[in-house]
Write a structure and sequence with these properties.
This protein folds into 3 domains: 59 residues, no CATH class; 122 residues, no CATH class; 250 residues, no CATH class. Helix content is 49%, strand content 7%. Strands 4, 5, 6, 7 and 8 form a 5-stranded mixed β-sheet that branches. A 3-stranded antiparallel β-sheet has the order 1-2-3, with no helix packed on it. The longest helix has 31 residues. It starts with 10 loop residues before the first strand and ends with a helix.
């Protein structure tokens, strides 16, 4: 990073929390939001905003998604780059396990009702002065005033957290404490009102509502995302497809999800092996068939692996998110249900630390016979389909035994194939895969536009072809063994 670069005029790297802080606005900004933030909040021209966004995006270990933000769950020292608020309200109803901080009495009362099933008052109507004092006493006992900060101003990771009190109250100005009393507070009132109105507007669009329009996304009406997802919370939908953590994070309230994490990892391994099969185990004519979308279509460009082998990790993510969308309550068809239950079973075994079971004698015999025939069969395919590979010495895929799928990877492959085999007869949203793809189009505000969603579809389709190729190879050698 060049010293004194243009990006340093606007942003500072808060390495401890892996976030870029806007110096003027004094809050964190995700790399994907930097360009729009500069143009909207600071009126920076597009070309310059793109340059700054690119430079900031090159900073090491910046988080890409708000859901990855690790908000402190314990009291920490104030972060000098962020404003400190002295009107925080720390929940005290369950002090041992709840460390939620709010800056509004209405919001913390809602938290008490929804999380702790507790309310300060039991009835409405006009309250006597004594009743009002009693309610105030109960409120004071259920929360404690603290100093607080937050890293992001919206979405996941935007919750407040408690910070330590300064040793000397005179240092509040140095720490950026926002005044809540006196003449200086009036300057803050205008900003607070503007932010409050912005929160109201954002809350109004946080729930997907019937009749929404998105002019930058012309296929929303065609895909019927809106009728399918109406009434659902955007934050909940985005949370259900995020990458799971195998272990609980002590710095947040997020619990570990070892079963989901095992499925996520299995999908990554499956896709890596599926692409390897396309590279090493099939010829050009097979790949031409794989790329064809119509029975009588003629294609001249075969299915190609990603040029950078590491790119498969990035392009596997949409399929991983699709698998995270489903739950045991989802209404699958019979074969999809059986494949899903088998996948969950294997994931539970993997999450429980059970090692792969030893191969049965039949498994070993099948592998040995398949390996005996692998070299002859695949060399014949090369001779008849891809003369280019014949000229390259020692390039036969049969020279090395292909890596086997683990039990959970096989179960993952079977479930994905079951999703792809769903024949739509009436409504597109009878297909579980189509339903999951709709959720991948959701953003915190609105829908993913024409520059964001097509790459997701492209990755889903291309990697699906890799899996179909690999499933064909798996079935081929299995059927050959059973015929003997």
């Amino acid at each position: 990073m060049a010293e004194g670069g243009i990006e340093l005029q606007h942003f500072e790297h808060l390495a401890e929390y892996s976030i870029a802080i806007c110096k003027e606005c004094r809050h964190g900004v995700l790399p994907s939001h930097i360009k729009s933030h500069l143009q909207r909040a600071h009126k920076v021209k597009q070309k310059q905003a793109e340059e700054i966004a690119e430079r900031v995006g090159s900073w090491p270990e910046l988080i890409e998604y708000a859901s990855e933000m690790q908000v402190p769950s314990q009291v920490v020292a104030p972060i000098s780059q962020l404003p400190v608020y002295s009107d925080g309200l720390l929940c005290q109803l369950d002090a041992a396990s709840c460390s939620k901080v709010f800056r509004s009495k209405d919001v913390i009362k809602k938290h008490w009702r929804e999380v702790h099933d507790w309310s300060v008052g039991s009835k409405g109507g006009h309250l006597s002065q004594a009743a009002q004092k009693e309610i105030q006493r109960r409120v004071d006992e259920a929360c404690r005033r603290v100093h607080c900060q937050r890293l992001l101003i919206q979405g996941p990771g935007s919750q407040y957290f408690e910070v330590q009190l300064p040793d000397n109250d005179d240092n509040d100005d140095d720490l950026g404490v926002v005044p809540i009393n006196g003449e200086a507070a009036w300057a803050h009132v205008g900003k607070a009102m503007a932010k409050a109105w912005e929160r109201v507007e954002k809350q109004a669009i946080s729930t997907i509502q019937a009749g929404e329009r998105d002019k930058v996304n012309p296929w929303v009406e065609r895909t019927q995302w809106l009728p399918y997802l109406v009434g659902m919370e955007r934050a909940d939908l985005m949370a259900c497809i995020k990458e799971p953590a195998a272990e609980p994070d002590p710095r947040s309230d997020n619990e570990g999800e070892p079963v989901e994490a095992a499925i996520w990892a299995a999908m990554a391994g499956l896709m890596r092996l599926s692409q390897a099969s396309v590279i090493k185990r099939v010829g050009v004519f097979v790949r031409l068939e794989a790329i064809r979308t119509e029975k009588h279509q003629t294609r001249y460009q075969p299915l190609q692996p990603y040029m950078d082998k590491e790119a498969i990790i990035k392009h596997t993510r949409p399929w991983q998110q699709v698998l995270m969308f489903f739950s045991p309550q989802y209404q699958f068809r019979r074969r999809q249900r059986e494949a899903w239950e088998a996948l969950v079973h294997e994931a539970e075994r993997a999450a429980g630390g059970e090692a792969e079971e030893r191969e049965t004698e039949a498994d070993k015999q099948m592998d040995e016979e398949a390996d005996d025939n692998l070299e002859t069969d695949e060399e014949m395919e090369v001779d008849g389909t891809d003369q280019a590979t014949e000229t390259a010495p020692n390039q036969s895929a049969a020279s090395a035994r292909p890596e086997k799928l683990s039990r959970i990877q096989k179960a993952c492959l079977e479930f994905c194939i079951a999703l792809l085999n769903h024949r739509i007869t009436r409504q597109e949203y009878d297909s579980p895969l189509v339903c999951a793809l709709a959720v991948l189009g959701v953003k915190e505000e609105g829908w993913k536009g024409p520059e964001q969603y097509p790459p997701i579809l492209s990755a889903i389709i291309k990697t699906a072809r890799f899996m179909v190729e690999h499933q064909g190879l798996e079935l081929r050698y299995m059927n050959k063994w059973h015929k003997r």
